[in-house]
Task: inverse folding
């Protein structure tokens, strides 16, 4: 399907969603009188427009799926007026292809316990990263693979480990090549949030402390974190190979679960022991 047709479908979905959400809002819930002559449930278009500080014509065009550009600030006001829940708000911004300006405030610092605990039920090495690549949770196989890190780190962060912890250069096979890819992966991962305080703090620290990170960061290379084979030279177990698989968490889209599954050769070796 062509890009123009796809955009038209997306705009229509956005308009249909706003119309449905508008019909669910009771006028009195936003400080308006219910009135006696309402022939349809919910708010009128002109009422939504007034509450959001935009013209009725402009709002009508949005609901009609016309090719108009809606700013993140207007979308945020619409989300508030229409009383959108978290998932609905996320859906709204995805349809509009915008970043929610309140994304940072809406993300909690701590993982819900059920997400943190699920890592421990995984038999392979597994860990959860937030958008700054802070390691939020990890299991025992991961701890063993990384030879005691991140327990020994007061602020475990995968980027800081790779670039600032000398142990990483020994553990990660082809460290320099992997480190350059990590920078490009992180730029793709955090691109929409590089101006936010927590992400900016990590970047600025690494720019100060690691000339190599600074060199690759300024090259603006971007690649997907697709996974693939990851090789390690463990201080006691020798050369180990893993297949990396990454999942985005539905209930915390700013976080991802990373699993390191023993590569085929490692599985065969384990089976023969």
Result:
């Amino acid at each position: 399907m062509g890009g123009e047709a796809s955009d038209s479908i997306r705009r229509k979905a956005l308009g249909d969603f706003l119309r449905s959400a508008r019909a669910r809002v009771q006028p009195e819930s936003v400080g308006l009188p219910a009135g006696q002559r309402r022939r349809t449930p919910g708010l009128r278009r002109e009422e939504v427009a007034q509450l959001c500080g935009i013209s009725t014509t402009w709002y009508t065009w949005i609901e009609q799926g016309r090719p108009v550009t809606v700013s993140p600030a207007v979308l945020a006001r619409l989300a508030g007026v229409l009383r959108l829940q978290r998932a609905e708000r996320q859906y709204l911004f995805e349809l509009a292809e915008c970043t929610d300006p309140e994304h940072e405030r809406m993300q909690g610092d701590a993982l819900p316990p059920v997400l943190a605990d699920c890592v421990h039920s995984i038999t392979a090495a597994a860990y959860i990263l937030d958008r700054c690549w802070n390691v939020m949770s990890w299991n025992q196989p991961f701890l063993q693979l990384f030879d005691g890190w991140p327990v020994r780190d007061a602020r475990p962060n995968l980027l800081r480990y790779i670039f600032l912890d000398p142990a990483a250069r020994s553990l990660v096979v082809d460290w320099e090549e992997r480190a350059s890819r990590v920078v490009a992966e992180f730029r793709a991962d955090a691109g929409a949030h590089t101006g936010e305080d927590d992400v900016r703090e990590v970047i600025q620290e690494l720019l100060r402390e690691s000339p190599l990170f600074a060199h690759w960061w300024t090259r603006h290379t971007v690649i997907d974190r697709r996974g693939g084979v990851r090789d390690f030279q463990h201080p006691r177990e020798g050369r180990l190979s893993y297949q990396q698989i990454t999942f985005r968490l539905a209930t915390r889209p700013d976080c991802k679960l990373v699993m390191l599954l023993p590569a085929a050769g490692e599985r065969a070796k384990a089976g023969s022991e």
Q: What stands out?
A: Residues 3-101 form a domain with the 434 Repressor (Amino-terminal Domain) fold (CATH 1.10.260.40). The two ends are 52 Å apart (CA to CA).
